[in-house]
Each structure stands twice: as C-alpha cells, then as structure tokens.
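Notes from the 1:1 (GR / supervisor)

We went over the backlog. Supervisor wanted to see one worked example end to end before approving the batch request, so GR pasted a single chain during the call. The sequence is below; no edits were made to it. Supervisor asked that the structure be written out right there so they could see what the output format looks like.
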Amino acid sequence: MKTNCVVAVVWLGRCMSITMQLATPDSLSEIVEAVAVWQHAGVPVQLHPGDLGWNWSLGAQELAEAVRVWTRDGQILAVGMVDDAAGLIRMGIAPSVDEDAAFAAQMLADLSDPVQGVLPDGAGAVEARFGAAFRDLLHRSGWVADEPWTPLSRELIEQVEDCGLRVEVIDAHNIRDRIVQDRVAVQRAMFPNSTFTLERWRAMAAAPPYRRARCLVGYDRDGDAVATVTVWSAGEGRPGLLEPLGVHRDHRGHGYGRAITVAAAAALQEMGSSSATVCTPSSNVGGVATYVSAGFQKLPDVTDFRRTS
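Structure output shown during the call:
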C-alpha cells in the first residue's frame, strides 16, 4: 500500500501512527480479509468483501485506485472505497475503533482535505453505517443526512425453503460457459445502462473474494434465464451479502425476484453465513417489498452523510 498521510497519536504513553494509504493490487487480498473479519451479526451493514469483489470486475488496478486504507501501527482499522461518479466513499470500520475519537478525527481530516484527493473539494458524501465516534463527528461537523437506504436481513438459522425455480450455480469450481453467458445477459437486461461483460465477469470470478462467492441463475419452465444474483460470504458464521440481484426486464411480474432472493439466502446458508443481508434505496419500494416477501426483515432506514460546503 502507498502511504499518503501519517499522524502520530500518543496513547497510554506510546506513540501510535495513524496512516492513510492508497491500496495497491498486491494489497487487495489483505484488505478483503480485514473487511471480512469486521462483519458481525446485529450490527449495521457496512462495506463488505462482496462490495470489493463486485468492483474487482473493473480490474485490480482500478479497484486499488479507488480504495483507501487507514492503519495504526501497521494494522488495518478502516477501509474506504471511492465511487468517483457519485462523489462518495463507502466505509468499513473495525469494531475495535468503534468509539475511538482520535481515529475518527484523523479519518475525517483526511476526507476533508482536498490535497488528499479522496472526495471533491467542497462536496462529497460518506457512507458510514458503523463507527459510533466517526458518525457522531460527521454529524457535529456539519455533514447532513443524505438519501435514505433500507437495510434488510434474513437470519439463516432455520432451513431455507425451496425457491420454486430451477437454479444453476457458478462458483470458483463450477464454471460453465453457457451458464456464465446467461448470467451476463440477465445482468445486462436488469439495468438499462449496464456495461457488464463476459470479460468483467471473468475478472471478478478470478479474484480472491470470489472464492467465497457464487452466482446463481434462475430459469423458468421454458428454460429461459429470468433472474440472477451474486452472493458473497465473509466466512463461516458471518453475515453474507447479496450484490447484485435482479430480474430480466422481459420477465418481471412473475415472482422471480422473490424466488431468486430465496435462492440466494439458501446459497449463503449452505456456505455457512449467519445471515443474508442487502441494502437498497428506500425509494425502491418494489425492491424492499420483494425482499420482505422472501423472508427478509426490514431494518431502520440509514442515510449517508453529505458535506454541504
């Protein structure tokens, strides 16, 4: 990782350095594992290995250029993934610094400094759904609530029911060209401006996070690919993530969204996840209803923090 900024903090008589670093392709695997360890049941959904895995489809170099890492004495304690198009950084914060005011202050200083080049000067937003000290500091520093999002979660203690669709699975050990092509085609038909390609899928599937991930493709009775989802495990006993999920635009209104969501929960249960989690804009009323119909519990809305000046 490339060092951008270092500050020394005295803690119990010992000098401890808080450093913001720019990731490198070689450091991404270490960063993903750190983020995985921070995933715990019962805490808000924050940056997940699946978020990094999905963005790996753009290539390791491009992902590394979007990732910032905060360390103290060499230990990774916070990770941010920058979305330049949205002027947003999505944060993952270690539970050990949840209430660490000094660490929070340094993160905010780095994000607020235009020289660091993390967020646009005078603008930008932070997705910080965990980290009590950091969230409190953002609020007290004049950052305001942005668009509301709805997190949802389904506990995976009891056996997940059958989804009612024929579902094909693509994992790191089972890659069939026809199923992969269907997965890419449905992805492109889910979103009007999708730029997803077979090459991008291959880049994602070849990356370390996909060793704990699966793509599912759902087929109707006529054999048409109608829905797809990628599920990401953070490891045994930790919350898993659905990212992304959707239904082919020509096959909506038949319950396939609910079906592929149930299939996703079943896949994560099989992989040892404690729960299946997802977060969608609260304005996506239909999406929220689909997740609820698939057994997900709607949790209190959350918002990003936006800088007004």
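Supervisor's comment: Residues 5 and 20 are 5 Å apart (CA to CA).
Batch request approved.
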